[in-house]
Specification:
It contains 9 helices and 10 strands. The longest helix has 24 residues, at about 280-305. Strands 1, 2, 3, 4, 5, 6, 7, 8, 9 and 10 form a 10-stranded mixed β-sheet that branches. Helix content is about 30%, strand content about 25%. By secondary structure, the protein is an alpha+beta fold. It is globular. Among the domains are: about 145-240, no CATH class; about 305-390, Transferase Inhibitor Protein From Tn5, Chain A, domain2, CATH 1.10.740. The two termini are about 25 Å apart.
């Protein structure tokens, strides 16, 4: 099976789960680095800085805009680099750049998510491409992206000089990342319409001279000593007419953390993909496509483990796998009430309890909830059991 077919299969169950919802289609790229030597490159290309080799994974994750529930993978791309491009970035058309993945993935999402009530593609600064603003939006297909730079606006101004209305202050928990500790920040927001101007160096033909968008600017007040203050300029095709609209845009953008969690689960906090010793790039590409889907399932189980999600088990498991879960429950439950599966039958939380038990969790309320590694181990055990179950009548 090809990598392209494996990626196409990501969206098949997700499409059903997204029907009738407002979906945040969150996309980003992660470098997957493998240990290599001069004689063991395995066909991998350069990634990152220095003498690093691996592949790149671009994925789009569907999240319910109202509940924050992870609905599954939508589409994406996995590739290796042949080397460094000889033609400068600014002299190549978009079709010849890696950045075209932001547009093609979003375009593919239109077919996968065609039953959704509304789709908002959420991305960080690298996705702030003028061609994307000009070509992708439709009536119920919106974009929400953090601005890469202080764009020119019609009339000679910049985003930083746009006349914006105040939206007040809010306290927000800012997640930790490398070089930044978690903290509570006081954020101030402003909002208003803007007309971004076509960049003078754009090579794509037939693009309009300007695109009408809305801007929500978020600034952190009184950051801790030594901390870089938050400054987000969020561009969107959604109408932002009131302060509550502006804060809703901020809340949707902050859901972008979900795709970072997917990448962490795929690598160091779950499946440990980068430790793989598979011996060729072709096989590593396929393994990554399979592992990305497994990481998404692990993440869904983590979110559901405490019973706060109303999602059904069918969001992550096939009907035959749900049968296996049913058969496992009495085998894993103990004699006391404390050792029973406490969640509604065939809910995702109910399934998470089973997978966690298979991964070594003891099931007691006094114990820490199962984490990604425990659930990844349990999912691997479950897949083996499910395969045996499928052969029971052969």
């Amino acid at each position: 099976m090809s990598v392209e077919r494996l990626i196409e299969a990501w969206g098949e169950p997700t499409s059903l789960m997204c029907a009738g919802r407002h979906v945040l289609a969150i996309q980003d790229t992660s470098e997957v680095k493998f240990r290599t030597g001069a004689q063991t490159r395995r066909g991998l290309g350069p990634v990152g800085y220095g003498n690093c080799y691996g592949l790149l994974l671009h994925a789009m994750l569907a999240v319910d805009a109202e509940t924050g529930d992870c609905l599954g993978l939508v589409s994406g791309r996995i590739w290796t680099r042949d080397g460094v491009a000889e033609v400068p970035h600014e002299k190549r058309p978009l079709a010849d750049k890696e950045s075209e993945r932001w547009l093609t993935t979003a375009q593919e999402a239109k077919a996968v998510l065609d039953e959704a009530a509304c789709v908002t593609v959420v991305a960080d600064r690298e996705s702030d491409i003028y061609t994307e603003w000009a070509r992708l939006p439709e009536a119920n297909f919106h974009l929400l992206t953090r601005a890469m730079k202080d764009r020119r606006t019609v009339g000679g101004g910049r985003l930083s000089t746009a006349k914006l209305a105040p939206a007040g202050d809010r306290l927000a928990e800012i997640a930790a990342r490398p070089g930044r500790a978690a903290r509570e920040a006081r954020l101030t927001a402003r909002f208003g319409p803007v007309q971004i101007a076509r960049p003078s160096n754009t090579l794509e033909p037939d693009l309009p001279e300007s695109v009408a968008l809305h801007l929500v600017e978020v600034v952190e007040r009184d950051p801790p000593d030594g901390a870089e203050p938050i400054l987000w300029r969020l561009l969107t095709t959604h109408q932002v007419k009131h302060a509550q609209d502006a804060w809703r845009i901020v809340a949707w953008y902050r859901q972008r953390w979900a795709i970072e969690q997917l990448f962490r689960t795929l690598k160091q906090q779950g499946l440990d993909l980068e430790a793989s010793q598979v011996d060729s790039a072709e096989r590593l590409l396929k393994l990554t496509a399979i592992a990305a889907r497994a990481a998404c399932t692990v993440m869904q189980l983590v979110h559901a483990r405490e019973g706060k999600s109303a999602q059904p088990a069918a969001i992550a498991f096939t009907p035959s796998e749900v049968e296996v879960l049913e058969a496992l429950v009495p085998e894993l439950e103990g004699a006391t009430a404390a050792q029973k599966n406490p969640h509604p039958r065939q809910s995702l939380a109910w399934a998470a309890w089973v997978i966690a038990k298979l991964g070594g969790w003891d099931g007691y309320k006094s114990s820490k909830p199962p984490g990604p590694i425990t659930l990844a181990n349990g999912l691997q055990e479950f897949r083996a059991i499910a395969q045996g179950w499928s052969l029971r009548d052969v």
